[in-house]
Amino acid sequence: MKKAVSIFLTMVMVFSLTACGTAESQEISDSSSTEESVVEFEQVASDGDSLDTESPESEEESKVLVAYFSWADNAILADDVDAVASPSVIPPGNVQQLAEWVQEETGGDLFSIQVTEPYPSDWDECLARANEERGNDSRPELKEAVENLEQYDTVFLGYPNWWYGVPMALLSFLEQNDLSGKQVYLFCSHGTGGLANSVELITEALPDTEISDQIFDCYEEDAASSKEEIQSWVRELGFQSGESETAGEGSWQIAVQFGENTVIYELNDGTAAASLYDQLPLTVEVEDYSTNEKIFYPAQGLDTSDSPLAQSGAGTLAYYEPWGDVVFFYDDYNENPSLFELGQAVSGADLISEMAGTITLEAAE
């Protein structure tokens, strides 16, 4: 009997130890699992808020699109087309030329809006078809749409004034390409009708798009000579080509400071501009002259041996060689064979007329 009890007690002890060992093993296993989970969670937390430990790809840098409709890109030229009577149909057309200059200044991508059925190269016949399309509220079929439109945050949109509005093909483009959420700038070549109803038509077609009220427009006969004007407009909007931004790593921009105001000029690569830059920093007294300019006299005259003549309007920085004065133009001016351009205002052009007293010129950072 004692032997049986002993055997029984031995079996109970073995069972208890086995059960205890199993419980301890389970606790150790659970503890280990918990510690691993904590370590894993801490690793995720240290990598960032997301549970995805892979770094997100960097977003593509936004780009500028310069889209335009030009008669020259949408007409089949007849052998006897009159280049004098219909200059805008001879490549590059008026709007096409303006668009190329905008593209040159912004470094954006150029896109020509083209119809599948070309317009007549005779202006009267083209006008008749344009009027018919307008009367029918037509949407001419286009050859293609813009690829990867989502990569563009800014769109420059160029067009001619047709029948006191826009070519209906432009409305086809606006309806087929979603520009919502983008910043749009308009430029237009026109006759005596000016912008007419074109801005209203475009605004109506783009209800969810921000359209700037800073619009460039010119008469069609002036388009071919409007390079400086339209590129100055682009710069005033805050755009400039990659080439301009990297030239000399920004060493060719100067800041003109007066009071709490600053005007930034981008200098050209002429010898006169280089001569001025070499004298920086300068502290001088600015003077009023006439009704469109401010002037000062640098300590040393500028070398004009290889410098362009001044041909632009407001925002031009120039040098008048006979008097030896540097000129800040804030309104249009007459060309002069002794007036040399140094550069153009790219920021703060509207402040030039307020310059007074002591000003400082230094290299822009």
From TrEMBL:
Occurrences of domain Cyclophilin-like (ranges): 257-361
Compositional bias of kind Low complexity: 26-44
PANTHER family linked: EXPORTED PROTEIN-RELATED (PTHR39201), FLAVODOXIN-LIKE DOMAIN-CONTAINING PROTEIN (PTHR39201:SF1)
Extent of the signal sequence: 1-21
Protein name (record): NAD(P)H-dependent oxidoreductase
Pfam families per UniProt: Cyclophil_like2 (PF18050), Flavodoxin_4 (PF12682)
InterPro entries: Cyclophilin-like (IPR041183), Cyclophilin-like_dom_sf (IPR029000), Flavodoxin/NO_synth (IPR008254), Flavoprotein-like_sf (IPR029039)
GO molecular function: FMN binding; oxidoreductase activity, acting on NAD(P)H
Species per Swiss-Prot/TrEMBL record: Candidatus Limivivens merdigallinarum
UniProt domain Flavodoxin-like: residue ranges: 93-235
Stretches for region Disordered: 26-59
Top-rank lineage group of the source organism: Bacteria
Keyword terms of this UniProt record: Signal
Acidic residues bias: start-end ranges: 49-59
